[in-house]
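JOB MANIFEST
job_type = single_chain_structure
chain_count = 1
residues = 254
[input]
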Amino acid sequence: MRMYDLILKKRNNQKLTQEEIDFIVSGYIKNTIPDYQISALLMSIYFNGMNYEEISCITRSMLYSGKIFNFSFVEKPKIDKHSTGGVGDGVSLSLAPIVASCDICVPMISVRGLGHTGGTLDKLESIPGFKVNLTEQEFITQLKKIGVVISSQTDNLVPADKKLYALRDTTATIDSIPLIASSIMSKKLAEGIDGLLLDVKTGNGAFMEKMADAVKLAKTMVDIGKKFNKKVVALITDMNQPLGEYIGNMLEIY
């Protein structure tokens, strides 16, 4: 199997198999497939898309590229929330501890800024001394103690997505529904959660500016969740204006 042939196949709008996607993801993690070839593949996916089966395959491949958390020892419901992001979106900062206070565990693997949106981790790091790079043991200890964690991906949690996420940001392939859906869901499925609430933004401050695209993305992620036997609900919310009075990492924390 050669990466060249797989790029050509996707460029010609043909469908990739699970075996082929596993080969791509594994090779990228092991650094046997270079950035420039993955970039070419990302661009082919951006223009030609992926069908549901391909999206499920790449989600599965990224999910099992590293370790999956097992929080079966936590008796409370384990529920997470994820937003596709928008200008001034700091909802997670207040929502996660509020939900935790209602006797629900929130193991939240969050992200940094992508494109024009600020990331939850970037905002938290504007607090002097705030640590977002937790080890697996620190993650578990905090979850047991206070019932909520907002952390970056550990080195062995969905490492394939971590590399692809950074590359998408530098290759103008961010707003691709298959890539967004597989990226979000691979991280969330690796958290060991029981359920997930998705906040899919639409409007001129979001990646999905058109309502139809936002609905398509939401349905895609809900369907992936069902395939992996998870309870997933999606809300389509307005992002035609900032979600607050301030924009910027430290200002949004304030």
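[summary]
The beta strands are 79-83, 106-109, 148-151, 195-202, 231-238.
Residues 211-227 form the longest helix (17 residues).
exit_status = 0
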